[in-house]
Amino acid sequence: MAITDALLGSARPGTHLLQFYSADPGQLARNVGKYFTDGFEIGCTAMLLATRAHRDAILDELKNSYWSPDALQREGLLHVFDAEQTLPRIMVAGWPDPDRFETIIAAEVRNAAARSANAGVRAFGELVGILWSQGQFPAAIRLEQLWNNFQAREPLTLYCAYPVDPFGSDFEAGIIDPLLCAHTHVVTNDGSSRLQVAVDHAMRELLDCAEHRRMAESHGRKAWPALPPAESAILWLRKNAPERADDVIARARLYFESDPLSL
Predict the structure, then answer these.
(1) pTM of the entire structure?
(2) Fewer CB in 10 Å around end: N or C, the chain?
(3) Is the pLDDT of residue 123 over 80?
(4) Using CA atoms, how far apart are residues 247 and 110, in angstroms rounded to an integer?
């Protein structure tokens, strides 16, 4: 069983998952589908707060696993919401409002929990991802804090998705730090091993031995969940070797987007 599958299958209330999905949005749908179906097997109810494209893809994954979304919704085991329509309802002056979050989002989670036979709710949400894609980074982190405060009081497992490109300029510690600190685990993608090979290959070509040693001896912040090696290396480069980071990351992107067999 893959590490990702094990993580999704064993997620318990209090777990707050994070996935960066820009490289393969299809992998996101497959992961969320497994997260939900494993939850149904142990008596959880599910709450899906997704954009239209991802919502349809995730519901298709449930069908592929022989779970009927229509039947699940009729039985109160699956609660589906449009993230793009729901987000404005909890915002006041461009900021997530605690009272609206409580009366709209928290109330729906409690409604879902009433059908869970004490197994809790598995929620997947893209409200934060929408805010992030709009460049509203502080608002996204504030919404994560509201989720975490609520999660401390209710039997809730939460899975968040962000359209973040690890090669992008916004993937740097100063921006990503509060996002990572708000979560307990990072979900890897199918392409993680290819990404690691590409980053390693670029670093071997462009960094000297001393820089390699410095990176190998460093670690991410203790407040962060465990990051895959490639993403961790990119954050280290942007923070500790900014004069070399752009060249290494550009080379790694080139390798990642090329034929993987050529690496």
Answers:
(1) 0.89
(2) N
(3) yes
(4) 49
